Structure formats: C-alpha cells, structure tokens
Amino acid sequence: MTLEDETSNVPAVNQTEINSTAPKFKDLNSVDRVMVGYERNTIKLKCEAEANPLLNISWYKDGVTPPRRQWGVIIYSQRSIILHNLTMEDSGSYKCKVINENGFIDFTYKVEVKQKFPGMVYIKEGNNITALVHTNATFDCNVEADQKPCIEWLYHNTSFKNVNDTNLDDGIIIKDSNSSSNEFIIAELLKLIDVTHLNEGWYTCKAILKNDTVYASAYLKVINMYHTITMVIIYELIILACVIMIVHRQKKKKELMARQSDGNERITQWTKKIIIEKLQITDVNELLILHIF
Fold first, then answer.
1. 4 pLDDT band (50/70/90 cuts)?
2. Nearest to 205 by CA among 147, 156, 134, 133
3. For the whole model, what pTM was predicted?
4. 3-state DSSP assignment of residue 148
5. Rounded Cα gap, residues 47 and 31, in angstroms
6. Cis peptide leading into 53, omega within 30 of 0?
7. In which order are the strands placed within the sheet that holds 56-61?
8. Cβ contacts of 34 within 8 Å, gap of 6 or more
9. Which structural domain, as residue segments, surrounds residue 59?
C-alpha cells in the first residue's frame, strides 16, 4: 500500500463542525431595550447576532408571530425590522428569537409610540420688554415639542411696526445654536449687554423642528433714566390724587352720616313731644268729665 492510499483512507474533517457555535448577540450592552417613537415617524429594531451554522431569526409582537400591524406593513431585512408611519397601535413588546442547531437566544424590545403634537414656542418675558439704557436685557425662549429643536434668534429693527408670518425670516440672525461650538451656551437664552436705543426692536425666537418651524417674538423698548424718573413722579402724583379723593369722600360720607343722625334725633324728640302733649290733653279731658259728673 502506498502513502497515497493510506492518506485517501483517512476520513475528511468537516470544518463547519469544528467551528460550530451557538447563537450570540453582538454588543448587547449598547442596545436600548426601550424604544420610543412618535406618530408618523419610523422605528428600526435590530437583531444583531452571529452563529455557525447559519441562524434563523423569528420576530414576535406581544407573543404572536409574525407581528401584524393594524395600519401599514413591516419591512424585514436580514437582521432587523422597520416600521414606517408609526401609529399608537404599534406600541407593544417585540421579541427577536435567534436559533440554530446548537441552541437559541432571544431579545425583547419595549416599543412606546407617543402622540405627536405640533411644536409651541413662547418667550417667558412676554410680548413687550422695557429696559433702561446701558443695562442688560434677557430673553428666554421656551419650546414645547416632542424633539430637540435648533434655535435661531433674529433681530428686526424699529422700521418693522410689527412682525408676522410674512416677514419673520427677514430679520438678522444674531444667534444660531448650530454655529456655536460651545456646548455650555444655552441656545434658548438671548442676553443683550449694555443696551442702547440701537438695540430697540423686535427679537424673534425661531425653533426649527424636524417637520415644522415655530416662532415667538417680543419687542424691546429702551428708555432713558430721566424718562423713568418722570414716570415715577407721574405715578406718585396719581397715587397722591387718589389718596386725596378717597379722604375727601370719606369726609363727605361722615358729614352726611352726621346730618342724618341729627335729623333722626330731631324726629325722635319731636315724636316724644307730641306723645307727651297728647297724654296731657287726655288727662285734662278726663278731669273735666269727672268734674261734670
């Protein structure tokens, strides 16, 4: 027997059997078990696993396979599913089960679909802000939305008598959260230092969302110190006039009450006098009658 014959009689080794492994997930710690989505948005659930021989992946929703949607379809890829145009009915428990001849593993997502509402924005200080010249003024933009917005601040000078939907974007951009590299800068706050009359005008907070853009505007009025003093004096004079009027009315009221009291006293005395006189007349008549009889 030759060497070749001996070699040919050795059974072949199956390389697949040597490397056969049970399924396992890739980097499971970086996967969020709770997935939050919003109506009309898209969500993707991954099932990143590896095994040898090739594995089989099954998906379940609330224990039922295959998952079903009331509206829309589920798009399957090799190791994930995609749900477009989410609705509230898509909320639930989604499980991917990975199996081969060496075993199986599974992973469960909790999907929460929240109702999408239009973004709202307002400036906390109100629609009109007054500041003294050479002082500071701060605007605080409050955005209520289901996603983090990009904030821009725009300035419209006093030539704009008002701002509305047609000219909101015509202002000068004075602060942009996208262009700022400092993560400690709060985009919602706009602080003006040492304001002058040149700073007077409209300030607009522009909140850019994924599918919408919302605005809020406030007018900054800058006044001089003497104007403030004049206004304080006017207010004090108005308050003094009000106090004088109140005191005068109270005095008149007391005098009226005193006159009414005197009148009532006179009526009482006059009534008593009439009663006494009537009693005296009655007594005289009775004496006359007795004298006659």
1. very low
2. 156
3. 0.42
4. coil
5. 10
6. yes
7. 34-38, 103-114, 92-100, 56-61
8. 109, 110, 112
9. 21-114
Give residue for tokens 């409209």.
Answer: 202
Whether residue 124 is found in the same domain as residue 36:
no
Residue 11, preceding peptide bond in cis (omega within 30° of 0): no
**Residue 149, number of CB atoms within 10 A of its CB:** 23
15 is a domain residue? no
pLDDT at 226: 67
Please answer whether residues 137 and 195 qualify as being in contact, where contact means their C-beta atoms are separated by less than 8 angstroms.
Answer: yes
The verdict on 219 and 131 lying in the same domain is yes
Is residue 141 within 8 Å of 121, Cβ to Cβ?
A: yes
Which residues are paired to 140 by β-bridges? 189
- In terms of average pLDDT, the best of 73-77, 91-95, 101-105, 150-154 is 91-95
Which residues are bridge partners to 75 per DSSP?
Answer: 82
- Distances from the Cα of 108 to the Cα of 55, 65, 104, 111, angstroms: 18, 13, 14, 10
Which of 187, 202, 192, 203 lies closest to 142 in space, CA to CA?
Answer: 187
- The two tokens of residue 162 are 């008002």
DSSP state, residue 203: E
Is 3 a domain residue? no
Looking at the 3D structure of the chain, how many domains does it have? 3
pLDDT of amino acid 193:
93
Instruction: Flag whether 12 is in a domain.
Output: no
Condensed to tens digits (0 to 9), the pLDDT of residues 212-264 reads: 788 888 999 999 876 556 667 788 889 988 999 898 888 888 888 877 777 77
Q: Strands, E, within 157-241: which ranges?
A: 172-176, 189-192, 201-208, 213-223
* Residue of 59 and 234 predicted with greater confidence: 59
